[in-house]
Protein backbone atom coordinates (compact mmCIF):
# COMPACT_ATOMS: atom_id res chain seq x y z
CA UNK A 1 0.00 0.00 0.00
CA UNK A 2 2.20 2.85 -1.26
CA UNK A 3 1.86 6.28 0.30
CA UNK A 4 3.33 9.14 -1.68
CA UNK A 5 3.75 12.52 0.00
CA UNK A 6 4.40 15.49 -2.27
CA UNK A 7 5.33 18.67 -0.44
CA UNK A 8 5.25 21.93 -2.35
CA UNK A 9 5.14 25.57 -1.42
CA UNK A 10 1.71 27.14 -1.48
CA UNK A 11 2.11 29.26 -4.60
CA UNK A 12 -0.81 29.21 -7.01
CA UNK A 13 -0.83 25.52 -7.90
CA UNK A 14 -4.02 24.82 -9.84
CA UNK A 15 -6.43 21.97 -9.27
CA UNK A 16 -5.45 20.64 -12.70
CA UNK A 17 -1.75 20.63 -11.77
CA UNK A 18 -2.49 18.78 -8.53
CA UNK A 19 -4.57 16.23 -10.43
CA UNK A 20 -1.68 15.71 -12.85
CA UNK A 21 0.77 15.21 -9.95
CA UNK A 22 -1.54 12.63 -8.36
CA UNK A 23 -2.13 10.82 -11.65
CA UNK A 24 1.50 10.69 -12.72
CA UNK A 25 2.88 9.79 -9.26
CA UNK A 26 0.41 6.90 -9.15
CA UNK A 27 1.35 5.79 -12.66
CA UNK A 28 5.05 5.85 -11.71
CA UNK A 29 4.55 3.55 -8.71
CA UNK A 30 2.35 1.22 -10.76
CA UNK A 31 4.91 1.07 -13.58
CA UNK A 32 8.10 0.79 -11.50
CA UNK A 33 6.90 -1.21 -8.48
CA UNK A 34 3.93 -3.01 -10.05
CA UNK A 35 1.61 -1.70 -7.33
CA UNK A 36 -2.17 -1.59 -7.45
CA UNK A 37 -3.36 1.95 -8.20
CA UNK A 38 -6.47 1.34 -6.08
CA UNK A 39 -4.27 1.05 -2.99
CA UNK A 40 -1.80 3.80 -3.88
CA UNK A 41 -2.32 6.96 -1.86
CA UNK A 42 -0.99 10.36 -2.92
CA UNK A 43 -1.09 13.35 -0.57
CA UNK A 44 -0.16 16.86 -1.62
CA UNK A 45 0.92 19.01 1.31
CA UNK A 46 1.03 22.70 0.45
CA UNK A 47 3.36 24.49 2.83
CA UNK A 48 3.11 28.22 3.42
CA UNK A 49 6.21 29.96 2.07
CA UNK A 50 6.85 31.45 5.54
CA UNK A 51 7.29 27.86 6.77
CA UNK A 52 9.69 26.64 4.07
CA UNK A 53 13.34 27.62 4.19
CA UNK A 54 16.20 27.42 1.73
CA UNK A 55 19.76 28.57 2.32
CA UNK A 56 18.86 30.00 5.72
CA UNK A 57 15.92 32.12 4.55
CA UNK A 58 12.20 31.60 4.11
CA UNK A 59 10.88 31.19 0.60
CA UNK A 60 8.73 34.28 1.25
CA UNK A 61 11.85 36.39 1.83
CA UNK A 62 13.63 34.89 -1.17
CA UNK A 63 10.62 35.68 -3.39
CA UNK A 64 10.57 39.30 -2.15
CA UNK A 65 14.30 39.64 -2.88
CA UNK A 66 13.74 38.14 -6.31
CA UNK A 67 11.02 40.70 -7.06
CA UNK A 68 13.25 43.58 -6.00
CA UNK A 69 16.12 42.22 -8.09
CA UNK A 70 13.86 41.80 -11.14
CA UNK A 71 12.46 45.31 -10.69
CA UNK A 72 15.98 46.74 -10.50
CA UNK A 73 17.05 44.80 -13.58
CA UNK A 74 14.10 45.98 -15.68
CA UNK A 75 13.72 49.46 -14.26
In short:
By secondary structure, the chain is α+β, with helices and mostly antiparallel strands. It contains two helices and four strands; from the N terminus they run E-H-E-E-E-H. Helix content is 47%, strand content 24%.
CATH topology: Macrophage Migration Inhibitory Factor
Strand content: 15-25%
Give the CA-CA distance, first to last residue. 53 Å
Largest sheet: 2 strands, parallel
Domain count: 1
Number of helices: 2
- The radius of gyration over CA amounts to 17 Å
Beta strands, count:
4
CATH homologous superfamily annotation: Macrophage Migration Inhibitory Factor
Briefly note the structural class of the backbone: alpha+beta
The helix/strand order is: EHEEEH
Characterize the overall form: elongated
Mean pLDDT: 95
Which architecture would the CATH scheme give at its second level?
2-Layer Sandwich
The low-confidence runs, each spanning 5 or more residues with pLDDT under 50, are none
Helix content: 40-55%
Keywords: Isomerase
Protein name: Tautomerase
Family: Belongs to the 4-oxalocrotonate tautomerase family.
InterPro entries: 4-OT, 4-OT-like_dom, Tautomerase/MIF_sf
Amino acid sequence: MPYILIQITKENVSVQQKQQLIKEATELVVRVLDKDPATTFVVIDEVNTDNWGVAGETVSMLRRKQLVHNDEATG
